Amino acid sequence: MIGVVANAEDLRVAGEFFELFKTPWEPAVASRKYAVILTVGEPIDGLNADAFLVYGSDASEADVHGGIAVDHINGPVDIRGDDPGRAQTIVLIYGRMALFRGGTGIVRRGDAALDYRSDDGRGSMRRIGYDLFREVAFLLTQGQPKSWAATPALDLHIALLRRLLRDLEVPFLEIPPRPQGHDFVCCLTHDVDFFGIRAHTFDRTLMGFAVRASVGTLVDVVRRRRPLGEAMRNWAAFLSLPLVFLKLKPDFWRPFEDYATAEKGRPSTFFLIPFKARPGLAPDGAVRTGRQVPYQMSEISEQASDVMASGHELAVHGIDAWRDADAGRAELTELTAITGGHTGGVRMHWLYFDGDSAARLEEAGYTYDSTWGYNDAVGYRAGTSQVFRPSGTEQLLELPMSIMDSAMFYPNRMGLTDAEASESCHAIAENARRFGGTIVVNWHDRSLAPERLWGRCYHELLSEIAKDDRAWFATAGDAVDWFRWRRSIRFDDDGNGSVSVAAEAVPPGLPAVRIAVHRPGSAPDADVDELPFDGEKVLRLAL
Description:
alpha/beta, 27 strands, 31% helix, 3 domains, TIM Barrel, 6-stranded mixed beta sheet
C-alpha cells in the first residue's frame, strides 16, 4: 500500500493517476504503517513507512540536512538514459524541476541527477526533483504541445515510479493496462465525413477531388510520392466521374465495404455525422461552411444497421456537442434511433473541444469521447494511451486517439511520405508493447479510395499492430468498457502484507486482467508473478 501525502487538489489528481498506475494507495494516515509513503511537497512528520518517496521541485528539508546542492530549470525537458542500442527518454517534465549536483540517482542529466537516495533514520528515502501531480494535471487537462506529441510523458511517470519502488525493494502489486493474453488494445476507427461522391455535385469537395485525382496525381508521380499503379487508379476514377453520377458505374467512396475488406473481420467503430448541412460553430464563434457535409446518419440507417449487425460499432461524429449539451443530446438521439440503445460514444468533427466539453458530453448522455488527439501530429496528447476520466466528469471516459491519416499525409500538416508515416506508426506500436494501453487509429472514410489511396500504409500499420498476435482488436466502446471495468477493481490492504482484490465479474465478451505482483529480488523480472483475474471471486495475495 502506498500512502500519499498531498494537498486536496493534488489528491484529486492522485486519484486519477492511480487509476492509470493501478496499484493500492490511500491518503496517508498516522495510525498505520505503509510499505512506502509518497509525498509531494508536504511534511511527513508523524507518519510511518519502510520507505519514502519525496517529490517536489522546491528545496526540501532533506536537501538542506544532507548538504545537497540544488539547481532549478524550467521545462519542457526530457531526460534520456542510454539503453543498449539506443537512447530512451526516461522522463519528460513540463514544469519546474530540481537537479541535485553530485547526486548518484538513477535519473541523470549531465553531472547532476533528478533524484538521490538517503536514509534519515525513519527509513530509506528517494528524493525526486519535480512535482508529480502537477505534471499529471497538466497532461490530462491542457495536454502536450505537438512538438512533444511522440513522447508518452504520463506513461513515463508511471514507469519511473514503478522503477523507484523496485529500487527501494518495496513489495507491491499492480494491474497493468494489458488485457489478459494481450499486450495492448487496438481500436480501428473511421470518421465518416463523406458518404459517396455522388452527394457532391459541383461543390468544393468534388472540385478538390478532380484537381487532386488528375493534375495533383501527376505531380505526385513526378515527385516519386505515388507509384504509377496508384496514379492509374486515380486517373481512371477521375475519368469515370460522369458514369458514376449517371449511376452507370458504382460509387467508389464506399467506406463500409472498403474497410470490411481491408480489416478482414476485425471489429471497428464508425463515427457518423448526425445532421447534414450544419457546419456548427468554431471555437472562435465563426461559422466555417467547409465543415458541413451533405449526408446525415438517418439517410444511411439501413447500411449502418447492417454494419452494426456485423459486429462493428456506430458512434457520433459530433458537430456542436462539444459546446452545448442540448445539441449533444439531439446528435445522440440520431444515433440511438439506429442502434436502439440509450447511450453512445462521440468524436468531434475537426476535433473541436475545450476545457468544459467533457462535462457537456457527459450531461448529454455520452459514455465516452475519443476526440483527444492531434490534427497535425501523431502521438499522445494526454501523455498516455490509456483511457482516462477527464476533469469535471463522473462517468464519461476519454479514449485518446494516437494515429490519424490526415494528420500524417495532408501537405499542410505533417506531409509525410508512406515510409515516414510507417516509421511514426511503428514507434506508437513499440510504445504500446512497452507500456500497454491502446492504439487508437483514425483512418477516414475515403482514405482507401481514390484519390487518397492511403491503403498501403494502412495495411502496413495493421500488419505491424497484429505482429506476434498480441493485440486485442476491439471496438472503441468495448475498449472503454474494459478500462471502465479495470477502474472498478478494488484493493483491501490488511496492513500485514496481504492484499485482497475484488470486482464484479468481467462483462461478457471482454478479457480478464492480469495482476503483477512485484517482490524484492535481484533480477529485473524474476520476482514478478502474474495472475489472471476476472472478478468471479475475491483474490487474496501475500506480498
